[in-house]
């Protein structure tokens, strides 16, 4: 019985949210406020069970990892915002968060977004193995494969030019940057199409839920 | 019957002897890490046809004679495992601590009867392999396999320092015009004419995200301009940590404009930490308060298309900026202007004219020249089959 009630609540809320496609209305507002409220409570519970309890309370109070008093103090300083005379203390915590995470991000980004990307582009402009493949099995796909490395390198270089801020994009620089922009847009188009397909899959999932699980038509 | 029991006992004896002999268990510290991992290797365990391996697991102890505690369950065909203690589990491996390991095999006799396999689960036998140790997980200061990263970071920081000093000395650093930023005044002007607010979304990530930090710099400048024109600015937030930073940014902007009264704390709104609850909340604000301009500047994920589509349906002028590549197509489609990737970070330097940030921007431009040179040289060498240069950029 409780499962059935849950099913109908889920169905009604789905319809309420979808009613937004027509226009803003009280049903959408109700679903929106309910969603925001429930999420606030859920995140609070999740933070306690997944973060505060295993990472602070248990190691500090049950295993005696006293060093954790430092991050706890920084965390508590954030609450000084509610006391106007002491609110400046909360900036210490924020400064620590921003500073530490920025420092950590430098190495991770340098590795993942810089060195790894450079390495991935250090490929032969003309790949003999692809030529052999084309010679053995001549086809349009294999013919296009002959140029993939060249397109990758050429595309990356022109796109890098587009993100060059020290020169005005005019004349030859402008032409190179325009080619880079064009290639970016091709990439965006492919990404857009791919994501629209996955979003349609999500919509189908909701329609199947409403027509199948709730109404039983499917 | 008696003969069968005798054979079974003999088999159990032989298998136990075989399992308890040297399985070739080797434990070694994983080099070049923070001192939380030990790699273990062993020979494949022999499994005769009438033997069923019930459990196979690894144990660790802080003394050779024990007590030992289970580290993990293994599959019978496993031959290696990395004991990684980088989590906060109290039973995890600690750095610089002597530990001993052993494998444990729990098996039983099995008989095939037709198509089914009958396992004698009542009479399981547990055998331990040899104990190896002591071994320590030792932390390393430098990972020599990643020296290229520190080398490139050093070059990058030196360039930034050089250009920052130049900017501080007052030497002009040219930065080309960025279309999306020029449109900011247009957007704020439109909001002023319509008497409607400006909505500023700094993304869905916390203050630890570099895009959120850049967004706060842009927010300061945007709020200065909205304060100058006396236009309310609404900042819906998904992370509680961003609330004080966003408040400071808007307050500073209002102060810079000489209009401290323009700062309205109620317009810095924490909605929810849940992605789609936040999205629903922002959509609601767009529909009810009808901002004339929507600015999406920060790290966005699946909410990007929903937000920009709702904003588009309300007829607001929209400017977006993010370096989340997968979300850029949606902003390009649904917004009037989009700051793509690094343009977004350049925006914070361009808009603030801060010498430190301008120096960073110039530094990144020189790094791009370096990158182009490396790619061209590397690609030519690779084409001629010379791979030594490429190997310099391989990190493990």
Question: How does the SSE layout of this entry go?
Answer:
The complex is a heterodimer of chains A (about 220) and B (about 400).
Chain A: H1 2-18, H2 26-62, H3 69-77, H4 90-121, H5 128-136, H6 140-145, H7 148-162, H8 171-214
Helix pairs in contact in A: 1-2, 1-8, 3-4, 7-8
Chain B: H1 2-20, E1 26-29, E2 37-41, E3 51-61, E4 68-73, E5 80-84, E6 99-113, E7 116-119, E8 125-128, E9 132-135, H2 147-168, H3 179-194, E10 198-203, H4 210-228, E11 233-237, H5 242-256, E12 268-270, H6 275-289, E13 293-299, H7 303-313, E14 317-322, H8 328-334, E15 337-340, H9 342-352, H10 355-383, H11 388-391
Parallel strand pairs in B: 10-11, 10-13, 11-12, 13-14, 14-15
Antiparallel strand pairs in B: 1-2, 2-5, 3-4, 3-6, 6-7, 6-8, 6-9
Structural class of chain A: mainly alpha
Q: How many domains make up the coordinates of chain A?
A: 3
**End-to-end distance of chain B:** 59 Å
Which bin fits the share of residues in helices of chain B? 40-55%
What is the domain tally of chain B?
Answer: 2
The CATH class name of the largest domain in chain B reads Alpha Beta
Number of DSSP E strands of chain A: 0
Q: How far apart are the first and last residues' alpha carbons of chain A, in Å? A: 22 Å
What is the count of helical runs of chain A? 8
* N-to-C order of helices and strands of chain A: HHHHHHHH
Features:
heterodimer; A: 3 domains; about 80% helix; extended; B: about 400 residues; Immunoglobulin-like; Rossmann fold; 6-stranded antiparallel sheet; 6-stranded parallel sheet
